[in-house]
Amino acid sequence: IMPLVFFMAPTDPRFIKTLDAILTPVDDGGLVANNLVHRHRSKEVEEEGTFSMCTFWAVEALTRLGIHNPHYLEKARIMFEQMLGYANHVGLYAEQIGRQGEHLGNFPSALTHLALISSAINLDKALSG
Q1: Which residue from 41, 82, 42 is spatially nearest to 58, judged by alpha carbons?
Q2: b/e for 47-72, b at 16 or more Cβ within 10 A?
Q3: pTM of the model
């Protein structure tokens, strides 16, 4: 969330390397599985779901970098659209998404919904030009 809180510019090479490392598949040492983001790497990754809030934060980070590099903006759009498919029948999200797409953890997750709103607003602005 470094560029979200203006700790670091989204074009800073250190941020880009960090984001690329996070977005690497779990099997290759990263935090992403099925375009969803785990909160950390550990043995529990097998037992724990991906974190919805972290996925929306990744969308927002990709969006902020994507303003300067269209490749990242397209990744943000795809990740966001896929994440929308994990909402329940009334559009709510749990804290985590399990391997089979089931909701795990706190439900509904207010922080996830704040991250959803923020990423949606910023992605829409970036895609609208």
Answers
A1: 82
A2: ebbbbbbbbbbbbbbbbbbbbeeeeb
A3: 0.91
Dihedral of CA 29/26/35/83: which sign? Answer: negative
126 vs 88: CA distance, rounded Å: 27
Cis-peptide, bond into residue 3, ω within 30° of zero: no
State both tokens at 5: 């809180």
CB of 59 closer than 8 Å to CB of 47: no
Q: Which tens digit of pLDDT belongs to each residue from 9-23?
A: 999 999 999 999 999
Separation of alpha carbons 16 and 117, rounded Å: 23
List the structure tokens of 99: 């391997």
Q: What is the pLDDT of residues 59-99, one digit of tens each?
A: 999 999 999 999 999 999 999 999 999 999 999 999 999 98
What is the distance between the alpha carbons of residues 73 and 62, in angstroms, rounded to a whole number? 6
| Residue 79 burial by Cβ neighbours in a 10 Å radius (0-12, 13-18, 19+) | buried
